[in-house]
Design a protein that fits this description.
Elements lengths: L2 H23 L2 H8 L5 H20 L6 H15 L1 H11 L2 H6 L4 H12 L6 H17 L9 H24 L7 H24 L7 H28 L2 H7 L2 H14 L5 H16 L4 E5 L5 E5 L14 E5 L4
Antiparallel strand pairs: 1-2, 1-3
Length: about 325
């Protein structure tokens, strides 16, 4: 069996597992509007991040050291501390499909950030995929009942940019030796949660009263939608190009719309279904061929981003191959 054949399945399998994260994230909008106390975006963001982060820290028993204290804090703010409140603010102020569509611009943000941070040169195919993805997701929300709240739209766009920059920096910095994605997830969730904590206390005051329905919603978001989902997301970023991971985010608004249709009885028009197909096409188009490295243990990792140069200091004896990112 050739090395290309051997690596293709692990690489595609990593993408498939990573794709579960935005699909799960698509359920955030329905859970927020149907299960959680209303108008408490900061408290909801706090409950989603901090408990899960503290549990992961207790399980991994690994804390950041040296320069990683600052890096973990920065990633925690970008991926969690800023992203979560903005996400929930958009979810509270916009219908699920509208809130989800704003995440479709994240791949475009990622292409811009990757140019400066990873020295990537965006390809025409990537730009086209980003435009197709945004257009497709936009079609999903073209319905008479959609309400475009200005604050909600701004929150969704800024949140998408924050998450895109966090994704690119996560790829740029990697992980310390001996630290796995589960520990990194704990660092970021804890750092982001601690960033949100004083904001929630000052702006929203005391926690709201919670019933069993709300507790169940927070448990789902914390365990499934955060701890498990972010572990898969960070694991994927470590193994495939950051821009390929970013394009998977197009699955989130599609997931949100499908969940709204199946679980909440929201109508789907033919135009919205067409938009979903187009968005999925943009996701697949964004998974371009990437140069990857296989280490001695057989792990597949990105040796160079799409259109970029190999990582500095990369051992010459590493096997470099071309692997299609499509399954």
């Amino acid at each position: 069996m050739s090395i290309t054949t051997a690596a293709r399945n692990p690489y595609a399998g990593t993408l498939a597992l990573t794709a579960l994260t935005p699909i799960v994230w698509g359920s955030t909008y329905a859970v927020t509007t149907e299960f959680l106390p209303p108008d408490r975006p900061l408290f909801t963001a706090l409950m989603r991040a901090l408990p899960a982060g503290l549990v992961l820290l207790a399980l991994t028993r690994t804390l950041p050291r040296g320069m990683w204290v600052g890096r973990a804090a920065a990633l925690g703010v970008l991926n969690i501390g800023a992203f979560f409140p903005l996400l929930f603010l958009a979810a509270y102020r916009l219908p699920g499909g509208v809130a989800g569509v704003l995440g479709a611009v994240a791949p475009m943000f990622a292409l811009v950030f990757a140019t400066g941070v990873l020295n990537e040169r965006p390809t025409g195919r990537q730009v086209l995929a980003g435009v197709i993805g945004v257009f497709g997701v936009a079609l999903v929300v073209l319905r008479a009942t959609a309400q475009l709240d200005t604050i909600g739209v701004i929150a969704g766009l800024v949140g998408a940019g924050s998450m895109a920059l966090g994704t690119v920096l996560t790829k740029r910095w990697g992980r310390p030796d001996g630290v796995g994605p589960l520990a990194m997830t704990g660092w970021q969730l804890t750092g982001g949660g601690l960033f949100i904590l004083p904001l929630a206390a000052l702006i929203e005051g005391a926690p709201p009263a919670m019933d069993g329905r709300a507790i169940g919603g927070y448990l789902y978001l914390g365990v499934i939608g955060t701890a498990a989902a972010y572990w898969l997301w960070l694991r994927g970023i470590a193994k495939v190009p950051a821009t390929s991971v970013a394009f998977l985010g197009l699955l989130s608004p599609v997931s949100a719309a499908v969940i709204g249709w199946v679980a909440l009885g929201q109508a789907l028009t033919g135009l919205q279904i067409l938009g979903m197909v187009i968005a999925l096409g943009g996701t697949l188009l964004g998974q371009t061929t990437a140069r990857v490295r296989i280490d001695e243990a057989g792990n597949v990792g990105a040796a160079a981003e799409i259109g970029g140069a190999a990582d500095a200091g990369e051992p010459a004896e590493d096997a470099l191959i071309l692997v299609g990112a499509k399954s």
